[in-house]
Amino acid sequence: MSVEDAWATDPDMINRDTNNLNEHLKVSFEEIIGEPDSTHSIDCLWKYSYKCFSMWKSLCYIIATTFCGIPHAICWGCTFACIAFIHIWEITPYLRCMQIQLDIYKKCSVMYYAAFLEPYCNACGAFFNVWRN
């Protein structure tokens, strides 16, 4: 994606986790606090506890993302840009260089096996084939 493409497109404002990366973070009040049938608190306490939990979970997340969202996005953008740079300019050329360098050893090994080991293996195969019949 080019810089122009990054500025031209807008994110999906409805489905913000299209790859379900954070499926494990879908936490509801009922998954955290539960009263068995034999033990119940006062109904209004249960109802307002639910509302407080939901409100504070949302409010704290909004406050944290307001102060830290953009700095974190900058840091993660720089991190993945550095990873891309390292792969494009260091790792991939190094692997290609190694592939070119080791290719000569591969060719020599194939010639060695074809010249020395293949006749020996064929002779052994023919010898044992006689015993099979």
TrEMBL record:
Key word Membrane present: yes
One Gene Ontology CC term in the entry: Golgi membrane
Record-annotated membrane-spanning stretches: 61-89, 110-131
Chief location bin: membrane
InterPro entries: Caveolin
Compartment(s) of residence: Cell membrane; Golgi apparatus membrane; Membrane, Caveola
Superkingdom of the organism of origin: Eukaryota
A single BP term in Gene Ontology: caveola assembly
Protein's membrane topology: Peripheral membrane protein
Keyword tags: Cell membrane, Golgi apparatus, Membrane, Transmembrane, Transmembrane helix
Pfam family, one: Caveolin
GO molecular function, one term: molecular adaptor activity
The keyword Membrane is assigned to this record: yes
Family the entry assigns: Belongs to the caveolin family.
Functional description taken from the UniProt entry: May act as a scaffolding protein within caveolar membranes. Interacts directly with G-protein alpha subunits and can functionally regulate their activity.
Protein name: Caveolin
Source organism: Paralvinella palmiformis
